[in-house]
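Honest question from a wet-lab person: if I give you the sequences of every part of a complex, can you actually get the arrangement of the whole thing, not just the pieces? Trying it with mine:
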Amino acid sequence: MKTHSTTFFVNNKEYTLDIPVHRTLLQVLRDDLSMTDVKYGCGAGECGACTVLVDGDRPILSCLTLAVLMNGRKITTVAGLEKEGELHPVQEAFVEEGAIQCGYCTPGMVLKSVSILEKNPSPTEKDIRRGLEGNICRCTGYEKIVKAVQRASIALAASSPVKQKEGGKV
Amino acid sequence: MSSRILPEFELLPHDIDEAVKMLGLHQGKASIMAGGTDLLVMMGDGFRADYVLSLGNIPDLAYIIEESGKWLRIGAMTTLAEVAESKVVQEKYTALWQSAAQNGSPQTRNMGTVVGNLLRASPSGDCCCAVLALDGWVVLEGPQGRREVAIDDFWLEYRATARRPDEIAVEVKLPDVKGNTTSAFRAMTRTTLDLAKLNAAVRLDMSGKQCENARVAIGAVAPTTIRVRKAEELIRGKEINEETLEEVGKVVSTEVSPIDDVRSTAEYRRTISGVLVKRVIEEACKGV
Amino acid sequence: MQEELRVVGKRVPVKENFDKVQGKADYCATITLPGMLVGKLLHSPHAHARVVSVDTSRAEGLQGVKAVVTKKDDPRKIFTWNVMTYQLPDGEPQDQYIFDDVVRYVGEPVAAVAAVNEEIAKKAVDLIEVEYDVLPAVFSVEDAVKKGAPRVHDTAENNIGAPPTPVFCYGDVEKDFSESDTIVEGVFSTSKQSQAGLENAGCVAEWRNGRLTVWSQAQLPHMTKRMIAQALDIPESTVRVIQPFAGTGFGAGTDLCPEPYACLLTMKAGAPVKVALTRSEDLRMRFTREHIVRVEMKMGVKKDGTPMALKAKYTGDAGAYMGKILSGCGVALASNITEYEFKSMYQEIEAIYTHHLACGAMRGFGGMQSTFAREILVDEVCEKIGMNPIEFRKKYHRGVGGLGWFPDTKISSCGLDACLDVGAERIGWKGKWQGWGAKKEGIRRRGVGVAAMGWLSGAQPMLLEHTNATLKFNSDGTCTLIGSPGLLGQGVLAAHCQIAAEVLGIDYDDVRPLTPQDTDITGFDIGTHASRGCYCIGRAVEKAAQQARELFLERASKKLGVAADALDIKERRIFCKDDPEKGIEFREIAQDTIYSFGKDCRQITVNATIEPTEFAPPWQAGFAEVEVDTETGVVEVIKMIIAHDIGRAINPTVVEGQLEGGQLQGIGFALFEDIIISSENGVNLTDSFNKYKIASMLDCPDHEALLVELGDPTGPFSAKSCGESGIFLQAPAIANAIYDAVGIRLRDVPMTPERVLAALKNKSSTQTN
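Yes, you can. This is the full assembly:
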């Protein structure tokens, strides 16, 4: 089996692994590194449950990414959003608005929402819906998720600009 | 457990000349991967390739370059998202812009590429439809250097292209458009996040209300995306009005050979093909 | 609804969501045990075949493979995945083996492998050689009952799982039809929807020292435990079911799925085994929505609308096994009784075997299908007699004291009139509905439609709905709430905690629900189905809290020297009603129960059992506004409103969440969701999210769920149910709105553009003829 030595960061921690070429980032995170906060939903890029952020704010599907191609990259999973025991404002908003039911899509949904707000701190409802189009939630009917992102946007705007930048970038 | 296992394979080197050599060596057993949104799905379904060339490892393949008066060039690693965010594409190559912006989800747009879409050669590929209407060319690099294939000659049959096994598609280029050229694209899907049950794109070179030249492409109605030449002839040199559109609508349904699948029926596709083309033309006309 | 409430009715956050939002909650998909193996299934590629031989030698020879199981390992005990069967005294049909000699649908497991990792397990599965004797198969109920059709089960002649059987009939329908002024009828078909939760079916099983522990997505954990024991032919006490959070539900957890295979594997391998299905496997193998493939319904009314007679027949396409098709058809029938005051009703059900994937249950169980047919026919009746469709519904729905679903049951409350008013107002019915036969012009035409329904809050007294809830108190005045609803994310644990806190006069934060749940700890409970979680389990929680409250008051009474009935508890403090200054902290009493030092130590743990008898129907009105593109047949839902009679919302955020989620699944059911199985070879053509579509955020119309809170005399804090209710009215309201827009009556779900366009064509050709 062909393996490549690969070094990447997950939630600011460095990992160097010998990874078989055919393994996806999802498999490596979940199975090899026990990061089960990343979820498998379809394995074919159709549900968004496995979304992680690369290099800060670029959302990708870990199920369709070869782990060996992540050399040198910085990956953020939902477990990496918390800062000093405090939930990220997006996470807080999801809990407050009741935007979570079974919670299985939530990690991907939260990360994608973070990336939306990174790019556009005050998105319109349409921006939010377009931005979250690829994250399927079977439970909520999405209304409360939209409200949660709107709430987080307001919360982030209320915090100081400096803090906002730090809070968002991981 | 991540429950979807890819077959084992090896990655090919990152140097383009070296890679081309290796492709020649492993003919039939090697695949080329850009964003991975198609290839890795296929491999998860059991498609085997012993060698994979990841274009992500080859530098300088992500670009959108406008050579004024000549071409718009889009590199093989330029993502759909980058195309969708490009002002030039949005303003001058609207059909392509629409096909990229509606393609898949934000995440797959961040990974998938226009060139990958063309290479996949799916009859329902959204970018395929737009590039066919926009008269694109695929630039291939092989052992003998570069060659360019007109999009009209690129798809040979269902899922088969003119790319030779030892060639890499490095770029798609679109001829420059003048101010009087307009284009549009539309797809019909079951839900927004779905492959097209039908899609269509047009490019119109207008002179006032008169259409000087037209390219009409339609997808998911034949083994490859096709041009509807009879429809093009109908509007060429004519004013686009209700009457011509009515005729176009009629002729399109006689030019298609759709099938039944889970997304739609042959009958529906045939019936609606004319309506869709009509609407795309109307939309393009608004852009003049 | 007078009393002042501090916790009930508040939008408090659901406690487990803090874990979920950080990705820290446990699911079957996340659980890892030391030495855990990975199990993979080998599925039949044939819809019908005799399994001649299974050669596992090459698979067993692969390094890393720890166990391979086939029909040789099956204890051959007949059972069913449908664990709900234990809720009926005589049960539902049982016709499955873990591995049988015959496979009856494409995707049915033939063997399973446990290996040290997933890749080896998959390789091993590919190395198993099966010799099949392929047999002819049937793929529709029409073909299945034909003379000489291939038999799905030897025991079922003509593939009849259940012959047409009349149930809960009353009056003389033929007489009442003859006295009716207007009669309408139709034949309707509905789709095979998949629950399609984001977490695929999965479980972990561990056989250790004679005990079998199963981590399952079960919605009915105690009966899941019993069924696993039955299938494996081991004593029930050997089995323990643990419920981590489930990333799915909507009925999926009322059936077994990978559990039997994981259990056989762990028993053979002697190590824990996880079997987690891929999306494709989940769609091919998990029992789908009850597939009531045909509803024939006929309705007669007087000139003024007075409902006279209703006749209906529900035909279930059982698929390969009976699963829940009979109860599904039964619920279609029973739920149909309660809506309108028909003088007489005759309804029957039948079930036919085919070589399709079998049916379990999905949200809106059975009622989806009868509601669709009935509410469209009501619309037709209204047009014929020239009546406003809202008026008809207001005038002729059953009310308090009226006939319930089941014989001898009565309606305990009804807020439908208010629902119809509130919903009509919000959609703007007055301006938008222009009367019957209003002329609409243009390529895109808009229309509005209305539909109504009444559902239930638990299936008592028809089904066993035995429920237990336990409160176990800690020395700091907090308590653990021990119950076992399914942990599907429905938010019911929050409601339970609110009920307990309200009764006890303590804070929401003081009540902590037990998660994961464990049948070794929890008392018997049916679990989550039939929209029972808040109402039934909530009543048990309320009762337990009341009993605990009395114990605390008794103890405080001794401390304070005041009679217990003179005391009250509010905001964590026990005090004299007449002299509020005199009192003691709740926490102090709790402390004293545990650290009493020889005086009166007592662990206060209270269990309450209930077996409710009322079914407390919630009611709902649904309104759709649509725009139909007459050139393409595309139906765009502009607005969808449901107004729901909840009794009281214990937690409005949770209730809205249930209803909103149901709405979008209902829109999927109405417009695009459908499992399509090839009629040539039985292959499931929709075994990915690429093929089987569920709504994304952009497929969401403007939709809203409005709450009507008029109370119910039987519910906990007068609450009724909301779990399933969100999903019913989209299909009929949209169908009626399409009629209002373009004048076509659709009888088949999903109402795809293909069907709409065909109906439009049909209409114009009959008009020109």
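Two things worth pointing out. The radius of gyration of chain B is 19 Å. Residues 35 and 196 of chain B are 20 Å apart (CA to CA).
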